[in-house]
Amino acid sequence: MSTSALTQFEAALDELGASATHVERDAFGDHVEELLDPPAVGVTLEETLGDDALSLDGTSVSVDPTPVELREATTGVTAATLGIADYGSVVLTPTTRGSELVSLFVDRHVVVVRASDVVDDMKTAVDTLAVEFRETGGSAIVATGPSATADMGELVQGAHGPREVHVVVVEDE
Amino acid sequence: MSKADDIRRLMRTEGAAVAANAQGFNEGRYASVAELDDYEGLKAEARAIKEDAIERLPELLDQLRESVESNGGTMYVAEDAADANDYIRSVVADRDADRVVKSKSMTSEEIEVNEALAADGVDVVETDLGEWVLQLADEAPSHIVAPAIHKSREAIADLFAERFDTDEPLETAEDLTHFARERLGEQIVDAQVGLTGANFLTADTGSMALVTSEGNARKTVAATDTHVAVAGVEKVVPTVEDLRPFVELIGRSGTGQDITSYVSLLTPPVDTPVVDFTDDETPLSAFDADREFHLVLIDNGRMGMREDDQLRETLYCIRCSACSNSCANFQSVGGHAFGGETYSGGIATGWEAGIEGYDTAAEFNDLCTGCTRCVNACPVGIDIPWINTVVRDRINRRDDEAAEWLVDGLTPDEEDEGAPLQKRFFGNFETVAKLGSLTAPVSNWLAKTDASRWAMDLALGIDPRRELPEFQRETLVDWFAGRESRVADPTRRVVLYPDLYTNHVQVERGKAAVRVLEALSVDVVVPPVPSSGRAPYSQGMVATATDHAERVSDALAPHLDDGRDVVVVEPSDHAMFTREYARLVDEEPFARLSANSYEILEYVYGLLENGADESAVRSGDGAEIAYHSHCQQRTLGLETYTVGVLERLGYDVATTDVECCGMAGSFGYKSDYYELSMDVGERLRDQLVADDVRDRPVVASGTSCLEQIDSLLERQPRHPVELLVE
Fold first, then answer.
1. Do A147 and B154 touch (CB under 8 A)?
2. Does the keyword 4Fe-4S apply (chain B) (predicted)?
3. What is the pLDDT of residues A15-74, one digit of tens each?
4. Do residue A151 and residue B128 have CB atoms under 8 angstroms apart?
C-alpha cells in the first residue's frame, strides 16, 4: 500500500457512487455502528482480517445470523481480503461462515478492508489470487461498486445485489 | 417476407432502442479504453493467451478435468447440444429438482437447454433481468451482452402490466427493477439447481470467471446446492494469471464499463453454506457447504472450427459485443436481423457458420460490409471482416444459380466461384466501368432510363432510388498519357494508382492529385494498372480478388524497383494494398507494397513535414470545412493526416465520428439494403447538418462516402485533395 494507492482507491470508489471512510483500529466498532442502516447482520471479521481489534462485538450487528435474519436485514458487514486502487474494487472471499450470503442478500453492504491490503492495480490483485487459488482452491469475488442493471431501459443501481456499498478502510500501520 | 421487408420492420419496431443502446455502449468503449495506460499492449496479451490456449486446447482440457475433479466436481464434454442437454437433464433429475435458476449464458441459449428442461416439467427461471424480460415476452436475445437491448422501458412496463397483477403501475426503470428483483429473489432462494455460464476457465485450478453486474450469478451459485456451469470448450485458459487482461478488457470493450460490478472468480464447488432460507434458528455457519458441481463443456462444432485455418480465430472471441456496438449496420437493425440462431454482430458469422452451418450464416452475412470498424475494437484482435469474407466466399460456392450464363457474358469471372448474379455484377465492376467509359456518354444515358433501372433492379437487385455513377469518356490514365511531365528536379517519384473510380468516374479528383503532387515537386506517372480487387473481395469472391491482387502486385513491382512510392486516392483500395493483400499475395511482395503505399493526403502530409513548399498549394485562409473520413482509412489510423494537412493549410476543420457512411461500396446500391444504408447515412447527415457544421462545405475521402453524402445533402461534397488546387 502507498498513500497514492489509497487516494486513488477512494477516488475510484467515489466515481462508482460508493462511499469510503478511514478509521483507526481502536475506533473501529463505533465507526461501524454509525454506518449501519438497521437491522444489520455480519460475519466474524477477525477470521479474515486476523486482528482481534476488528471485531463486530459490541456493535448492533448480528454476527452469524439465521437465514431468516439475513433476509430481513438491510445492512450486511463483511471483510475484504484486498482492495484494488485503480478500479475501486474490493475482493470478497466466500467462506464457510456465509460471507457471500451476507455480502449479497442485503441492500447496504459495508465492507472492511485494511489499508495495507489495498494494492495498486488489477495485475497485482490477480497475481495474488492466483497464488492463493493454487494453494487453497479458493474463490473470490472482485466487487466494484453497487450491483447494477441497464436491462430495464436505463441504468439502475441495486439489481439483485446491494444498492449501496460503503468501504471502511482501517489504518493498520 | 422479403429481406428488405424484414429489415424495414425491425428498423421500425426495434431500431430506435437498438441504436440508442448500441451507440451508447460504443461511445463508452472509446472513453473507457482511452483511460488504459497500455490498451494495445493489453489486447496483444489477451490475443496471445487465446492463441496459445486454442493451440493447446486438448492438453488444457485434460488439465482442467484433473483440476475440476480434484476440487470435487465433475467435468463432462458434450459433443453437441443434445448430448449436453441429456447430461444436464440427468443432473437435474438426479437432484430431483423442480426449479433451475439460471444466470445469463449465450452457450445455454445455443443448446436451448431451457426447452429441454421444461419438457421434463422443470421450472427454468432466467434471473438476469434482460433474459427474464425475454423469457416473459418469449423473444430471442438481440445482443450478446445486453439481450433485451431492443426493448424500451415503456415496452417492458407494458409487458409487466400484461403479465402481472401489480398493486401499482410500474413506470420508472427503478420500479421495474425493484419488482423484478423481489419476484426473482423469491424464486432463487427456492431453487435447487443453479445454472451459470463461464466467461473463462482456468486449467491450473479449475476456476471459472463470471462477469456480471446484477449479482444474479452470485445468487444463482450461492443459493443452490447443485451448480451446473455450461461453456464452450474454447473458454479454457492456462492459468489464473491469464485472466487479468480479460478482466480489464471485457467490460470496457463491451458496454464501456471499466469493470462490471462483479467478476466472480470461483473454484467450484464453492464454500458458501447451503442454507434453508426459511430457517430462523440455525446460524449460517452451522449449515454445511454440501454442494455438487458439474462443468458441462460443449463442442458442438468448435473442435472442427479449431481445425479450420480461417474460422479458428472465432474461438478467441470473448463475447464482449464490441463488434456489434461498433458496427454501423448493427446500430440500425440489432441482432434480430444481424444474427443467426444464437449469436449476433460481426463475429456471429464465424460462430454460426461453425456451429449451425452455412445456411444460417448466409441469412445475415451480407450485413457485414467489410468497413473494418470492429477490427480495432476487438479486444483479441480477430479479423472479423475477413471471417465474413471467407464465409461469404464459401456460401457463394454452395449457391450456384441457374442464371449464371446470363452474367457470364456481361461480366466474365476470372474464376468460377459460383457467386450469385448480383455479387458477380458488383464483383466484376472493372469490366462494367471499362465498358461504361468506352461507350460514355451513351452508357450513362441508357443506364438512366426507367426500363434499364427496372431491369437492373429485377436482375441485379440494384435499387432504382440510387443514382448510378457516371462514367467519363476520358479516363485518368488517358488524360495523363496525353500530357508532359512538368517536374524538372523532383524530390520524390511516385506512381499514382488509377483506382477504378478515380480512373473512370471521379476523374477530376485524380487530376487534382496529379497537380498537387507535381506542385510539391513530385514526379508522377499514372500507368494502366488492374483494379485492386476490392470489388470482388467485398462480394466474397476471394479467388477473383486474389487474381487482381497478384496482377496489381506484378504491375506495380517495376515501379517499386524503380524507386517510386505508390500513392492511392481511394482509401478502400489503399486498405487493400496495406491490409487485405496480406491474405491474397505472398509475404514478400505484400510487405514491399504495403510499406511503400500511401493514401494521397497521408503522402502530402509527409511531403509538407519534410520541407515541401506549402505555398505551392492553395491555402485555406481560415475557411471552415467539414471532413468525413473513410471507415477503412480510420481503421488504419490515417484520418489524422487529412485533418493535419487541412489545418496546416489554414482550414478550420470539423470532423464526423460515425463509424461508417452506410454506403460501403456496393452495399447501399442493393435493393435489399437501400433503406438500411440510408438509415445509417442519417446519422452522418445529422452530424453534417448540426449547428456549427451545416454551412460548411463537405469533403470526404472515399468514393462511397462521397456518393452517400451527395444523396444525403444539398451540398455537393468533394475529395479533400481538390481543395488543394483550383
1. no
2. yes
3. 998 999 999 999 999 999 999 999 999 999 998 898 999 999 999 999 999 999 999 999
4. yes
